[in-house]
UniProtKB/TrEMBL annotation:
PANTHER family: ALDOSE-1-EPIMERASE (PTHR10091), GALACTOSE MUTAROTASE (PTHR10091:SF0). The active site is at 221 (proton donor), 359 (proton acceptor). Transmembrane segments: none annotated. Belongs to the aldose epimerase family. One of its GO terms (molecular function) is carbohydrate binding. The keyword Phosphoprotein applies. CDD domains: galactose_mutarotase_like. Keywords: Calcium, Carbohydrate metabolism, Cytoplasm, Isomerase, Phosphoprotein, Signal. Monomer. Beta-D-galactose binds at residues 123-124, 221-223, 293. This is Aldose 1-epimerase. It holds the Pfam family Aldose_epim. SUPFAM superfamilies: Galactose mutarotase-like (SSF74650).
Length: 394
């Protein structure tokens, strides 16, 4: 990438000098000038294109980041969603490994949170209620009686402002959530930076500041399928979750408050295990989630980057490692996908368990569960978390 960057800086400088000489009349034809511009924009470490408009007439842009190895990620400003992530298999063939749609109308009309940034509060809050300093707040109840992923119009459904990156490997997205929006207190200024590194890792860094005490829990909701073939399920992926405990849930998928050992249960992913191995086992928690749809308590609870999870597809050889500064990870195995949504770039549909999410985050319903790590953000504090998705082959 550095080499490409240098070439670009050189071309930009050249272009700048060219424009200076042009003022004095350089004798270059319009066609020659056009060719120079094309040369600069053809170096597509970061490109921008129109991605249509939402039903409300809001313009959506798509940005493409490419690294030296040819890995490519596409992100739209609607929900800051990853629409495509092309990574190599063991034969160096690049394929898309995240579930997505072909057009903006599909993203705005179907809502399984494909590739989206989630906020202001990722995951569920019981009854959509919480209190701060004795004041009660009511959020939209968009998941039965609970509030899920920030309410009816969470951060996955708003337009983020793309800022010009300080270097060519990052895309910086900003969203200003108003005091009272979706029931949450405080004006929240949120910045998410996607960085594509040359070691085939994609970093997602989240920052937020508020002017009034509030709650924040941001995450990324990409559905991965490392096979590169959306007609295949993810049941043969071998997954590791770096967690000795998980959070059992009630019938509305709200944690009961217990931290339960995974030992001897289908929830034990401390060593690589095929997702499908025990997903149909007779187990009350699996029945409640229709499969895995739970938060695991990561063994490393520090704020430093720590290993959270990995997934390996033996056939393609693709290996994904997730590290994070967060204390938990929601492992969701696409149980609610039902074969009705159209596949991106194909004729088929997304069947149940054709994708899985590894959502690094604080625990669900934390505002109502005193024993869980706090999700409160005060004015003057900076919310700052980071998650990295690293791809390789083996
Ligand atoms: C949740 C699932 C939910 C899904 C929506 C996941 O984060 O854990 O319960 O159905 O998001 O796509």
């Amino acid at each position: 990438m550095k080499k490409i960057k240098h070439t670009v800086y050189f071309l930009c400088l050249f272009s700048f000098l060219f424009s200076l000489t042009n003022c004095k009349g350089d004798g270059k034809s319009d066609k020659e000038k056009e060719e120079l511009t094309t040369t600069v924009s053809e170096i597509d470490f970061l490109t921008k294109e129109d991605y249509g408009t939402t039903a409300d007439g809001e313009k959506v842009e798509q940005y493409t980041l490419t690294n030296e190895a040819g890995m490519e990620v596409k992100i739209i400003t609607y929900g800051g969603r990853i629409t495509s992530l092309k990574v190599p298999n063991k034969n160096n063939e690049f394929e898309d490994v995240v579930l997505g749609f072909d057009s903006i109308s599909q993203y705005t009309s179907d809502h399984p949170y494909f590739g989206a940034l989630i906020g202001r509060y990722g995951n569920r809050i019981a009854g959509g209620k919480f209190s701060l300093d004795g004041e009660d707040y009511q959020l939209p109840q968009n998941d039965g009686e609970n509030s899920l992923h920030g309410g009816d119009k969470g951060f996955d459904k708003v337009i983020w402002t793309a800022k010009l990156p300080s270097d060519s490997t990052s895309l910086v997205l900003n969203y200003k959530s108003k005091d009272g929006e979706m029931g949450y207190p405080g004006n929240l200024d949120v910045t998410v930076t996607y960085t594509l590194n040359d070691d085939n890792s994609l970093d997602v860094a989240y920052e937020a500041e508020t002017d009034k005490k509030t709650i924040v829990n941001l995450t990324q909701h990409a559905y991965f399928n490392l096979t590169g073939d959306f007609n295949k399920t993810i049941l043969d992926h071998e997954v590791v979750l770096n967690a000795d405990e998980f959070l059992p849930v009630d019938e509305t998928l709200i944690p009961t408050g217990e931290l339960r050992s995974v030992e001897g249960t289908p929830f034990d992913f401390t060593e690589a295990k095929k997702v499908g191995k025990e997903i149909e086992a007779e187990n009350e928690q699996l029945e409640l989630g229709l499969g895995y749809d739970h938060c695991w308590v990561l063994n490393d609870q520090s704020d430093d980057m720590h290993f959270a999870a990995s997934a390996y597809d033996p056939e393609s050889g693709r290996f994904l490692e997730v590290s994070t500064t967060e204390p938990g990870i929601q492992f969701y195995t696409g149980n609610f996908l039902d074969g009705t949504l159209p596949q991106q770039g194909g004729e088929g549909t997304y069947a149940q368990r054709s994708g899985f999410c590894l959502e690094t985050q604080h625990y669900p319903d934390s505002p109502n569960q005193e024993k869980f790590p706090s999700v409160v953000l005060n004015p003057g504090e900076k919310y700052s978390t980071k998650t990295s998705f690293k791809f390789s082959v083996k």
